Input
Amino acid sequence: MRLGLSARQAADCFGKQPVVAHPRSFEPAIAVLAPLLAVGSKSAGRSGEQLLGDLLKGQPSAVLLLQYRAEALQHNVDNLLQLGLSKQQVVQALPHNPTLLARPPKNLARLEAVLQQELGADRQLWVKVLHSAARAANCSEATLRQRTQTLVTEFGQAEALRMVGNAPNLLAIDGIVWRLALAVWRLCGVADPLAVVRNNPQLLMVDCLNASRLANVLALQQLLPWEPSAAQIIKHHGSYLRHSPKTLAGRLLYLEQLGLLQQLVADKRAAKREWRQTQQEPSAGKEAATEPAFISVGDVASLAPAHFAGLVQHAEAWLSEDSELDSCSPSFEEFSKGLHQLPAWQRLWSDAEAAVAELEQQLPPELMRAGVSGRRGSNGGNVGSGSD
Output
């Protein structure tokens, strides 16, 4: 197969969509898809056929597109471009919903009409949904209407419209997912969940009943020097909870081992500004000090490995000016190899699993029953992420 798939990978594709395993030539569809991928991709040096092969390896269900006639496929592509998506945006959406190109224009028009009727949305928002939350295009009209109406009932039309504009994936998940999130926040002591949502609607898609997310909450509570409450973590650091606990909780435990927890701050700019102000105060015989190597929660959660390692080295070097510090500290990669064997990690997971069980006991039974199917059905994004 000139798309670069092995026999096993090709068999996996046909296993996902056995309907396409017939003698009809795939060449007409490839003739449409390959040029689109070549123009819309940022992967230099790879042909359209190779990029199509990459798509099939990552999303075997995309093989469904190969059974389409070239005219029908091109018609669907042209419709997306006429709606306002660029070729790059179409290509970016395919890994999340490869069947977007299989959606007839009339179906997409009906879904757009639902958003206009229920939210007062314009074409620009519909384009954003197709680009950023392409799975919403797979909804039936009834499902999309139910999801939008649930948002409007809870938040009002104007706020629901703004939220979908900032977090289009809210239309790609069952409403029970974010209703559970709000309920969990309240149990965690968040006094005004709606204020949190207004600032960051993306948080509604974080599955707070997942042990991975609660492990991150507990790690932040236990290891940040200012000992924030669960409510404060959700409000100020909630966007980091979706990160792998191996990264967020693991890096916090790593900093604890290195004696660097004291360098953690909630807001690095504010911490630097406050430090500079203290340096301006007159002090007889005081030598100019080197600016501290602060580490923010965002640094811990989001920095690429090389940048995080550099920040740790900088913090160690700064501390070593005033104290004895082991210059042969292990890298985080070395540390993480034994992460699961650390008693602190094992306690963290045990506590997180216990916290999940406790929250489930406190939630209304009807919400929990609805949530079981809703969380399973919303298979994607941040919802239901595993412990990785």
Observations:
- The first helix runs from residue 7 to 16.
- The chain has three domains: 7-102, 114-172, 174-281+288-388.
- The longest strand covers residues 264-265.
